[in-house]
Amino acid sequence: MKTLLAAVLATSALVAPVAAQEITQFNIGLLGGENAQDRMTSNECLRVKLEDALGVPVKIFTPADYDGVIQGMLGGTIDVSWLGASAYAKVYLTDPEAVEPALVKQNVDGSIGYYSIGFARKDSGITSLDDMKGKVFGFGDPNSTSGYLIPNVEISAAGYSMVPGEYFGDVKFLGGHEQTIVGVNNGDVDAGVTWADGLGNWEDGYNSGALRKAADAGLVDMNDLVQIWKSKEIPEGPVALRKALPADVKAKVIQIVADLHETDPACAYGVAAGEAKDFIPVKHEQYLSIIAARKLTQ
Questions:
Q1: Is the pLDDT of residue 130 over 90?
Q2: Which of the following CATH numbers is that of domain 113-234: 3.40.50.150, 3.40.50.300, 3.40.190.10, 3.30.830.10?
Q3: What is the pTM for the complete model shown?
Q4: Alpha-carbon distance 120 to 158, whole Å?
């Protein structure tokens, strides 16, 4: 995919002069969303490919929450991560020179968006937010786009107060997407939100996203769950790299991820959290609306 790499290089800060330096290790940061071991397993194939290409040890880090990855990228201890749009916005608002977006997941229909999905157990009788008065609503992580930022903004705008006790009986953070899905499935909360591309069949957990990962892992039977809310389309978060990395390192990493669906579809399935078409170039401008939304909540 030489033409794709050329497009990335031509439209990003990667062409800017970089001081000569060498890396002795390269670190991948994985946002929360599923348990640490599953995150590492899904991305082990990518770690091996990067280690072979870069010629240095490549390590995977799975912090307990989103902020662990955010602070790692800000502090220079994490070199690349597939960030959610809200997480990218927080990094950018804290230090505009810390990272740069390079690639974004492209869905099977060519789109580059996804959705926050509200869901409940089918046997709960809950079919919409109107049925959630006085009930417990579960959210993932405060730095999650689909797990908190967007539903907070959109559900509040629709007239349902997100202040615990005002409309919903309680609003709880459960720690991540997998925790939310399991929490709803087990009846620990009445409903929750998570992310999905919104394509394919509900019974499969859609084509990609946290529901698909949970269904694939056997954590839930999607026939036991029902969708109760869906956000407007959200810009898919970027695969972002530390700006201070050497240009040749960035180029190699981008090339490998950009080619992943062609060179190793099985690896791409794990990295992309399900079925997808490709990883394609993306610009900072794609996230201006999320950055603006993030400012409103700070």
A1: yes
A2: 3.40.190.10
A3: 0.83
A4: 19
